[in-house]
Amino acid sequence: MDAKTPRLGRPARLSREQIVEAALGCDLRTVTMRDIAERLGVSHSALYRWVGTRDELLDLVSEVVVERILPTPEPTADTWRRWLSDLAWRMHDQFLAVPGYAAHVAMPHRHNPHAFGRLRDRVVSAFQLAGVSDDMAEQSWQIFGLGVVQWLGSQQLGHDMGPNAPRFDLFLDVLLRGLPAREPGT
């Protein structure tokens, strides 16, 4: 390729990591693609060469956040409850560290199927290690995920739960003592 031949593809000035880091510093409830382009010092059209829509941008953010929260090592039959507690605290710290992220995740919408699929699979596996059926492990994931995300979302949105609002540590303790889910009456 000679010096006069234009290079095809995305401009080298941007990277996926730069875009995600710029988004992590914005309120994800209200951020626009123009906001991200401005933060990066690039044109709006240059950003669209990397990320086609706001939903794709939020999917990239979810990929990074889920990667940060998934604990290692994998849970075992002896550590599943402690593993879930660690995961919930990581969710607490990471979701609340990103302005608007917990509120965004708590709202009904299509979640990133890859990122949240990985999260779901790991949590279901932890509940299976607790000795429940696949169906009850799936139910437990739904209860765990919904409970933690809704608590975090309400905190981030500033919903006033009053002076006796449950602390996260108490909420999580009660939630995990009630999980995994079991059929009523068993």
TrEMBL record:
SUPFAM superfamilies per record: Homeodomain-like, Tetracyclin repressor-like, C-terminal domain
Keywords from the UniProt entry: DNA-binding, Transcription, Transcription regulation
Protein name (database record): AcrR family transcriptional regulator
Entry annotated with the keyword Ligase: no
Gene3D superfamilies: Tetracycline Repressor, domain 2
Keyword presence, Protein biosynthesis: no
InterPro entries: Homeodomain-like_sf (IPR009057), HTH-type_TetR-like_transc_reg (IPR050109), HTH_TetR (IPR001647), Tet_transcr_reg_TetR-rel_C_sf (IPR036271)
Domain HTH tetR-type: 30-59
A Pfam family that the UniProt record links to this protein: TetR_N
